[in-house]
Amino acid sequence: MAPLGVGVLLNPIAGFGGTLALHGTDRLPEGRFDEAVAAGRAERRLIRAVEGLGRPDAAAELLAPPGLLGGRALSTAGIAHRVLDAPVPSPRERTRRTDTIAAARALRDAGVCCIVFAGGDGTATDIAEAIGTDVPVIGVPSGVKMHSEVFARSPEAAGRLLSQFLHGSRESAIVEVLDVGPDDRTGVVAELRAPRAREPLQGAKSSARPQDGAAARRTIARELIAASGDATTWVLGPGTTTGALAAELGFAATLRGVDVRHPSGDIELDVDEARLYEIARDAAEPHLVLGVVGGQGFLLGRGNQEISTRVIGRIGADRVSIVAAEEKIGGLFPPVLLIDVDDDRRATGDGDRRPHPLEGYRRVCTGARQSSVMRVIDAAA
Fold this sequence. Notes:
Strand 15 and strand 16 form a beta hairpin. The protein is of the alpha/beta class. The relative contact order is 0.11. The strands form 3 sheets. It has a 9-stranded mixed β-sheet with strand order 10-9-8-11-13-15-16-14-12, with helices on both faces. It folds into 2 domains: about 5-195, Probable inorganic polyphosphate/atp-NAD kinase, domain 1 (Rossmann fold), CATH 3.40.50; about 215-380, no CATH class. The chain has helices at about 35-40, 40-50, 70-75, 95-110, 120-130, 155-165, 215-225, 240-250, 275-280, 310-315, 325-330; strands spanning about 5-10, 60-65, 80-85, 115-120, 135-140, 170-180, 185-195, 230-235, 260, 265-270, 285-290, 300, 320-325, 335-340, 360-365, 370-380. About 25% of the residues lie in helices and about 25% in strands. Pfam families: NAD_kinase. GO terms for molecular function: NAD+ kinase activity.
């Protein structure tokens, strides 16, 4: 039996803006394209998802557009594939969303049974424009913001889902594509079709109205402040709950960025990873406050890549508070918090993985003198 065709599509600059507080690459300056390609976040994550599926005896034949849209990454990794006969930009040019759209349509027209893509919500939106719900799609989470339901929980989860789809009944269902609008709010912008198998997708981000749970958020903020000292340097991750803490501390949070309030009262907004590390290194009493992505349960790896493993290591896990309204964590299934980050914890030489500083059972503050204990796990597991 001939192997099934699986399309592979890469946004080569996806994820570049995460640690730099750029909030994506939709408006990447022209002069930084080569730098973003060289960073290679999406390429590495794509390879983690599809490695092992390009063997000669595999059930799938991988098809990829040439060059930066996928073929070069597979060739560099030594993964067997067939190069799709499709027009691509010159090596001297940057890829654009029109190239992603054209490549997705070419893969569909080549008769693939599924398309695996590495990117973020913007890439998912482009693919939805290209093919709609014609072909099942699996998103390898590789961008900065990944709130759409089409994404797996990690690159490894994407690989497991693809394998189960190829060897199973190949069932699929319609899923939502979400993206951030001009008002900084997340909403449904399109639909795609995605496989259904034992390995779950991450689910779509759920967003509450600003007035919903406002009193609980204020209570959480006031309790955190009451338990702190005057020497506290506050590092606030994105979200409405941390935004309420910022308001109690006397400033307006960026909501999508990571903000810092120093003991002096000075404020730094939308801080990048390098600066966060400096702040954590120099602060006498740093305190990181993290929210939870509603509907998904992500603690790290969805829109807060500035908070790297080395930043948390410098702050100390005992100085990290997790905050979420009761209804936000009560609706999670399974009831765990997820981490999907890029670091060197897998490079131990013997195939083992060192745990993230926040893995294990952690207290989550949910309201006035209320908390839950939840397990924090690596989404790749």
